[in-house]
Amino acid sequence: MSEENVEVVRAAIDAWNRDDWDEALKDASRDFVLDNSTALGEWRGVHRGVDEIRQMWQVFTEPWESVRMEIKEFIEANENVVVTRQSAHFVGREGIELPGPVRSGWVWTFRDGTLVHLAVYNDLDDALEAAGLKE
């Protein structure tokens, strides 16, 4: 996996954790696709373009006091694909936390150094399978 792609992923998650959507999307193509079709809730679906994705993230995070993503592992798929294992921590407006972190696996796809696709999976094994790393 490209170290440059890993750094793009790190920077995007860091910016996302600050609710800085423009910075989180700065290395994404204008027609970037976020496939969140396995998720539950109103943010479920396939979101196209940075404007639509920015709006979806705002809807997703609005009810929470904080939502923090933490990458636990980077897994090499190939030069243009990075798989991450991460957890999310949710704190509600009344200070109530969801019990335990919410874990997931994401598949980040790059073309010519630009992020073009992100697929979100509720389970790391599903992400690994989608990236061709598991049968």
Describe the structure.
- The chain has helices at residues 3-17, 21-24, 50-61, 124-130; strands at 28-36, 45-48, 64-78, 81-92, 102-111, 114-121.
- With 135 residues, the protein is α+β, with helices and mostly antiparallel strands.
- The radius of gyration is 14 Å and the shape is globular.
- It has a six-stranded mixed β-sheet, sandwiched between helices.
- The chain is 28% helix and 43% strand.
Summarize the structure in short.
This protein is α+β, with helices and mostly antiparallel strands and 135 residues long. Helices cover 28% and strands 43% of the residues. The protein contains 4 helices and 6 strands.
Question: Which tags fit this structure?
Answer:
Nuclear Transport Factor 2, Chain: A; 28% helix; 6 strands; 135 residues; 4 helices
Query: What is the typical, i.e. mean, pLDDT?
Result: 90
CATH class: Alpha Beta
Q: If helices are DSSP runs of H or I spanning 4 or more residues, what is the number of helices?
A: 4
Domain module count: 1
Percent range for β-strand residues: 35-45%
CATH topology: Nuclear Transport Factor 2, Chain: A
Judging from the principal axes of the Cα atoms, what is the shape? Answer: globular
Q: Tell me the CATH architecture.
A: Roll
The SS-based structural class is alpha+beta
| Model regions low in confidence, pLDDT < 50 over at least 5 residues | none
Helix content: 25-40%
Largest sheet: 6 strands, mixed
Report the order of strands and helices: HHEEHEEEEH
- Spatial strand arrangement across the major sheet: 2-1-6-5-4-3
Separation of termini? 20 Å
Radius of gyration over all CA atoms, rounded: 14 Å
**Total E-strand runs:** 6
